[in-house]
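Retro notes
What went well: the complex prediction finally ran end to end.
Inputs used:
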Amino acid sequence: MNAILEMRGITKTFPGVKALDNVNITVRAGEIHALVGENGAGKSTLMKVLSGVYPHGSYSGEIHYEGEERRFSGIADSEKLGIIIIHQELALVPLLSIAENIFLGNEQARYGVIDWSVAFARTKELLKLVGLKESPEELITNLGVGKQQLVEIAKALSKKVKLLILDEPTASLNEKDSDALLNLLLQFKAQGISSILISHKLNEISKVADSITVLRDGGTVETLDCQTQEVSEDRIIRGMVGRTMEDRYPKREPKIGETIFQVENWSAHHPLHNHVQVVKNVNLSIRRGEIVGIAGLMGAGRTEFAMSLFGRSYGQNISGRATLHGKEIDVSTVERAVSNGIAYATEDRKTYGLVLAEDIRKNVTLANLDGVSKNLVIDDIQELAVANDYRAKMRIRSPSVFQETVNLSGGNQQKVVLSKWLFSDPEILILDEPTRGIDVGAKYEIYTIINRLADAGKGVLMISSEMPELLGMCDRIYVMNEGSLIAELDIAEASQEKIMHAIVKSGRR
Amino acid sequence: MDTRTAEELHAPQQKASWTEFIKAHFRDYGMLLSLLVIMLFFQVVTDGTLLRPLNLTNLVLQNSYIVIMALGMLLVIVAGHIDLSVGSIVGFVGGLAAIMMVRWGIDPVTTTIACLIVGGMIGAAQGYWVAYFKVPSFIVTLAGMLVFKGLTLALLGGMSVGPFPVVFQRLSSGFIPDVFGGEGFNYTALFLGVASVAAIIYFSFRSRANQLKHAVETAPFGLFLFKNGLLALLVVAFCYQMATYRGLPNVLVIMAVLIALYAFVTNRTTIGRRIYALGGNEKAAKLSGIKTDRLTFLTFVNMGVLAGLAGLIFAARLNTATPKAGLGFELDVIAAVFIGGASATGGVGKVTGAVIGAFVMGVMNNGMSILGIGIDYQQVIKGLVLLAAVSLDVYNRKK
């Protein structure tokens, strides 16, 4: 098979940093090529070089595409040749229809007048290709993330794509949608479309990839050919982190005490549609020093439950009792929930977790300003000491605590969010997808922090869509589906099969 | 478990050279520098008129109400909102004060207190819709602008009302009396100037010592001395000039106290910190236990009180309340805050910046008037300066 794309000796420097150092990658025509590496390894930068976001001349090295050297000066150049990138953060306009989004900037128009019948007809064809049954007139905002992703792919197809680049396409998809998307990639492959797949989910990569290029610290480590050899997940991880990961989850001897936190008959309704009950009579308990997981598919109501519990931050008509150490506590506002010993670290740290324009120090103390102030006046020096302390304890990598959080990597941002909640000194810490979008090395550090919390006698409630993570970390796992807890499994008896089984069984009822 | 040493973690960058430090803090100093350049420019082209004692006094009197409102507007803008109604509130409160004192014969002190409360209530009425009903502040205060402009006309019956009792006039036209009884030279003014310089230097030395003790990054000592020396020199020179005329205006003292108060609130208090967090990311602030709705409401109440105070000062200065008072003030105030480096999306902005921004506008108004440039081209130039200042800021931030 001949190569559709060859990038040779790509080096890209930013002031003070060498982001890419002599990177080579070869993508054969009609293959699915996975690009893996820890956050900050240079994957996104490499794709920006390829697509022309960084124009020719701003990097050194050569790009050969379809047998010729190419010098792109912008995205338009690469798109014309069929190189289409779908970014992790979807670039759809929420209040426009599917059809309008698909042909945005490429309208089916003559003399600037749009021919809607052609646009709708073509949209229908494209949607059929990606397996969507929605009307072309449906607004993007009414679609779930999984379907939005498919619309993005349909948009790429509308541009006669030859090389499709997907940056973390399944990061926010549930297992079913992820599978559908991966099958789509396999279909495209059969039609001769090549793809580059960037993903942290190694099980997906071993499922579909024909070859894998591993980047580390801006350089190519190796290219693994999956057709000639069996490539295990551990093998990929070894390449990414440069060492063997004996165990992806740090060891811990659970020291579990008495029940400290209980939720009884917790219910919540949808914030806009009062008749829709999103959380249904949830009963759960957490013991001292215990890590309790909530498993479930995307949309099972786990985040909604956690947020409705944390100061009624989600939903309406919320009812139920929360007790800490046997006494009922008031969690009706975030402030009261926090002062009663509850903390909730969000799944979406950029939107709900951090004030991105402010530095580490100010983010760390935000939920507990009283802890660093006297008579409403902040003690700078004490605040700085607190921030420095957490920066060291949590190993937040930054020049200083005065670094704005917008400039931190995902793993370090997550550590800042955790620091904020640890400083509020909670008894019960609810962690919603604590390792989403974080690379393998940083994940291990986050796990270590969680274990340390449990060992310190706190109760941890961990929501995650990655079942291996729950199985590796938790002492007990609840399974949630359609707003109800449908199963409770002790870690000794829990397995992925059992969790999926419970979900499927409850779905059939 | 951390392998790094304490030094690595706390490594202070005390050795930063002057140039590096200035580069890193360019936005803090750049604004002040441009004000000085603008002042120097007008000082030269007006043949020294700009900084003459009489004109300096005028400069303060003319800008006091803009500066005072800029303090409130800064908080509103940092919280992610805008208030277009402040000009109309100035007119309305001025008119109310006139009616109360001139028509109804109520004493100035009661009137002043009542007017500040009314200002706060107007702010509360608008803040209610913004904070609890989530109506965009642009719309609410645009409505408020029309409503209070109309109410001012109705209140005054379309006529000017005045003059005010002498006590009330002193709010704007009065000076701090000279307790030392100097002939033609106000020693009190100079004394207050020296005293405030001493206080500033004492506090900055103390905070620097504290920073050094805790290994916080600090300005190089030379730059620190230079900065404080320059500031001291400017304040003393300013007070000296004022002393040769009639001393320090009452308004200047009110203004200085308010600037110090708001600088302290924004930099050092929890409420200040929370307003910045609210403007930077409302959702994250809310999930951190901050009562974002109430905080938004309070910033509008505060704005209303300060607009009321500005209305009183402006009326006292003209010694009459006119239906046209306050017309277009909101634009000057908002421009001052943005020239001072605040971000239109909220979360970013400084009190010192807003004050400097207000004086940039003020010095240009004053200087161009001395030069005899018509009101037409004055506006053109002011508009271009606003655009240039903010573009430069955006460009700097991108780098």
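What we learned: Chain B touches chain A at residues 2, 4, 9-10, 210, 214, 216-217, 268-271, 273-274, 276-277, 280-281, 283-291, 347-348 (CB under 8 Å).
What to try next: split runs per interface for comparison.
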